[in-house]
Amino acid sequence: MREIPVLLCRAPHQGAQVPSTLSPRHTTNAPSRRWRDRLLTRVDERIEQFLATERQRWAAFDPDSVEVLDCVVGMFGSGGKRLRPAFCIAGYLAAGGDPDDPAIVDVAAALELLHSFALLHDDVMDASERRRNRPTAHVLHEELHGQRGWRGEGRRYGEAVAVLGGDLALVYAERLLADCPPGVRRIWGELCTELVVGQFLDLRSAAQFEADPERARCIALLKSGHYTVSRPLTLGAALAGEERLLAPFEEYGMAVGEAFQLRDDLLDFFGDAVLTGKPGQLDLQQHKMTLLMSLALRDQPVVQALFAGDGTTPDPDVLRHLLNATGVRDRVEEVIEERVIAAGRAIDGTLTPEWVAEFLAMANEAAYRNG
């Protein structure tokens, strides 16, 4: 395995105590959350207005052109958790940022559009047929190709439209960030680079299919940990001009982000497809070498035997039973719990008690969600 930058995989600092307010299902209704939610509403309004203006502009130029734009409109309009904007806004407000400054709305909106970019491409790479309980963009446009009796291969057409839709979402995100300060742009560049490299390493490890739990955790940090929590938080702090919080926010974010990805891995195997909004066992079908699978294949001969045949995918029900029976699922749950505790250590003493409570609540919501 090639060495992955230490910065991306470093352990949390030792010796700090877990805040007494930490609990496995901590929630809050404090003013901090109400301010955050007000700004999240403004983020949705900003994106809706931006996309509506773009759609009107391109419809006037050529009505057919809006079909690629509608990939972005459809992904954004299908819902989602808005986790990345939420963490960005929380970082900004906790760092003393002005809630009336429109710049925070644009930065948070850019993160959500970046997420649309990532999901549109991800669905193509994973050959996923559903996202948020709707047909994925590439499936929808493959079907349209067939219904219209067009020439060429419908599958390739659908995938190409979805990829271009993702590209357009990234372009729109960049446009919203055009006037941001250099420090914010630097973090944004790091975020985008980490996301792409993490996705590539995830793809490559699936092709190699070698059990390496350490590498699996580093990939989880790259493709999700930084992208979902760490960089959005530091973007918010940088926009607020509070560099003192960049290090603890990064440490907290890496811990919560990894817990978020590990929960995603468990939901893929054990979750309810109605709640997750996408087909189950996609990781198994795509041979993803998650921490769950790396631990199982490295340490459990009974699981190794399932993959020792002709390369066909094992029965998901049999594998799910073994992951439970051998304790591999519990081991991943233990890592998630440790990461949530590490997140609490990272912010202890750095924020006001109200914001500490809010950050703990957000950590638990990300790590213990069911969809």
From TrEMBL:
GO terms for biological process: isoprenoid biosynthetic process. CDD domains: Trans_IPPS_HT (cd00685). InterPro entries: Isoprenoid_synthase_dom_sf, Polyprenyl_synt, Polyprenyl_synt_CS. The keyword Transferase applies. The keyword Magnesium applies. Pfam families: polyprenyl_synt (PF00348). SUPFAM superfamilies: Terpenoid synthases. Keywords: Magnesium, Metal-binding, Transferase. Belongs to the FPP/GGPP synthase family. This is Polyprenyl synthetase family protein. It comes from Streptomyces vinaceus.
